[in-house]
Amino acid sequence: MNLSRVLETHAAWFDLLDDAQQARVLRDTTIADIEAGTIIEHKGAIASAWIGVLDGLVKVSVGNADGKMASLTGVPSGGWIGEGSLLKREARKYDIIALRRSTIARLRGDTFNWLLDGSIPFNRFLLHQLNERVAQFIGKAEHDRLLAPDARVARCLAELFNPLLYPGNSTRLEITQEEIGYLARMSRQRTNQALRSLEAAGLLKVVYGAVEVLDLDGLKAFGT
DNA sequence: GCATTAACCACCG
DNA sequence: CGGTGGTTAATGC
Questions:
Q1: Is the CB of A148 under 7 A from strand B?
Q2: Which nucleotide across the nucleic acid strands is nearest to A193, CA versus C1'?
């Protein structure tokens, strides 16, 4: 498959660029298929690329010395992440890890910065994305404190279907219940219980190794 | 009561 | 077979 077409369909910002900019992006973007569990970016490494999830699912997480791990957010296909460390030219603060077999694009960091210098639409896109992320994290902090476990799972799943951050996704998401548990900060057993309750409410369907969302608005509003 | 960890075991691909 | 998920028992808040 050709790169230009892939970016047109999996990078909402690509269409905003002029011909010369698109040409340079095509030249400076690499694509790789990676296995589940691959660490795409290591905490502590100097950021040198903007990361696009063309297919699959990735998580942003940190671990501590005791082996405890906190998953901070999931990023499904259509998502572009890692601009924070790129903008500040600093070391990555989190690990980026593939939750399943994924196709990952890397746009060279200097090209990313060149787009920032030369394209107002690109800046607008980033501003918009950052704004949406802030809203998502504020919401996460809120429901993390206020909502019951079933509703926390509902919101976490709804986040992964955010049409502004991850446009053009289907209703099916391949993710294990254990990983949903990490994202919602609860045990696998409790996550399983929550999923069954959401299924009983007709909001989603639980299938082996995946969930299928039936009612996204219902998920967002669950428990309120 | 409710959630968590740990352990088993069955099922799926 | 390895990964996933249902279940249960022990323990903690």
A1: yes
A2: C6
- What does each C-alpha distance from A22 to A10, A11, A110, A112, A159 come to in angstroms? 14, 12, 15, 12, 30
Domain A3-131 has CATH 2.60.120.10: yes
Question: Closest Cα partner for A107 from A27, A15, A1, A2?
Answer: A27
Q: Which two structure tokens, joined as six digits, stand for A10?
A: 């999996």
A148-221, CATH topology level: Arc Repressor Mutant, subunit A (1.10.10)
How many Å apart are CA A71 and CA A41, to the nearest integer?
14
**pTM value?**
0.91
Chain A residues 167-186 with Cβ under 7 Å of strand B are 185-186
Q: Which pLDDT tens digit goes with each residue over A103-141?
A: 999 999 999 999 999 999 999 999 999 999 999 999 999
Domain boundaries, chain A: 3-131, 148-221
Which nucleotides of chain B are near protein (any atom < 7 Å from a CB)? Answer: 2-7, 12-13
Confirm whether any atom of chain B, the nucleic acid strand, is less than 7 Å from CB of A208.
yes
Q: Is the CB of A67 under 7 A from strand B?
A: no
